[in-house]
Amino acid sequence: MNGNSPNTNLLLDSSGNLYGATEWGGTSGNCGSLGCGTVFELSPGSGGWTQSVLYNFGSDSNDGDGINPTGLIFDQAGNLYGTAGVGVNGGGIVFELSPHPDGSWTQQVLYSFCSLSNCADGSSPGGLVLDASGNLFGTTYAGGADGAGTAFQLTQAGGSWTEKVLHDFQNNGKDGYNPSPSATLILDGAGNLYGTTQYGGAFGSKAYGGTVFKLAPNGDGSWSENILHSFCSMAGCRDGEAPAAGLIFDRAGRLYGTTMWGGAHVVPFGTVFRLAPKPQGEWKEQVLYEFTGGEDGAYPVAGLAFDGGGKVLYGVTVWGGNPSDCSGGNGIGCGVVFRLTLTNSQWVETTLHEFVGNQGHSYTGLISDPTRHLFGTTIGNGKTTLGSVFKVTP
């Protein structure tokens, strides 16, 4: 009833309330006993945290309101925006949830993908980012001119929203393809967009590859793509392979992220990397950490978070940790919460928490509150638990 498998990064408001989405669960019957997903709020109190379901998806008889929500963001007025699957055209939707004084929320579908022939407008949207003018930007995993995904913009005028494709990714192309649904774009101060694709790039023929890209607006309304890094440029994909999450900036304008695979070890358990801009306009990649698959974790598929000073990174892995604590039987553990600290020009990894079998695995990034508590979610193990929201206390 209250949700199943939380699958998106949490949001924190000024009152300390947490907001998130679950892929399944809720009261709607359109998805059978699983439910079609929820958006929820967690409010702290003296006796613990209280959950409220703000919206149950799949309440429309034709699934026009979407199923399996993800990618929540706030605007300055306190409205929530996100994406979900299906919709009236089968390609997914962008939605808005607006609060009312009585505590209820109203959902509005802003755009339904696959409105154009052959899904030229995109299909299967991921997370969103909002600019200062109120425009929404995101990517789709599929659809577009070559079926390999798009980057898009939604603009509001006169109460309606118009979609514009900013870039069509090319199937097996050097510009990358299939941006992960969890790889949300980020904006810089000049209005440029930065993101990742899971596959493709200049070296994608060696393996899955993947890219970090930049989209820059032109004066005529068009956008230009520039590849900042193609993964698998090193032997054995030591520079990383298949980034499945978005990026973050530091104060110097450098980009940080994770790759699901790649690294120096015999089994490529993934990396944490940094991209730094060079005066010539190129970007240099540096691998900050290569996971071993032991108690330091394995396969980071979520993005990173900084502390306030910019010299500490936090993240999660899907596998790794103490294998005896995992009921999955894979022999490498259920995943960890980790910290990377910059010490004498080296990044040192510390495992802060090892997930146990009944807690499941964490596929989403962390957020922190002003007192440096970390919050995140797990999808559960599908048996004794159906997911959790957790806090790590320093």
What is the ordering of alpha helices and beta strands? EEEEEEEEEEEEEEEEEEEEEEEEEEEE
What is the rounded distance between the termini?
32 Å
Biggest sheet statistics? 5 strands, antiparallel
Number of helices: 0
Can you put this structure into words, describing what you see?
It is a single chain. The model has no long low-confidence stretch (mean pLDDT 90). Helices cover 0% and strands 43% of the residues. It starts with a strand and ends with a strand. Strand 7 and strand 8 form a beta hairpin. The strands form 7 sheets. Strands 1, 2, 3, 4 and 5 form a 5-stranded antiparallel β-sheet that branches. A 4-stranded antiparallel β-sheet has the order 6-7-8-9, with no helix packed on it. A 4-stranded antiparallel β-sheet has the order 10-11-12-13, with no helix packed on it. The protein is built from no helices and 28 strands. It has 394 residues and is an all-beta fold.
Summary of the model, kept short:
Strands 1, 2, 3, 4 and 5 form a five-stranded antiparallel β-sheet that branches. The protein has a four-stranded antiparallel β-sheet with strand order 6-7-8-9, with no helix packed on it. A four-stranded antiparallel β-sheet has the order 10-11-12-13, with no helix packed on it. It is built from no helices and 28 strands.
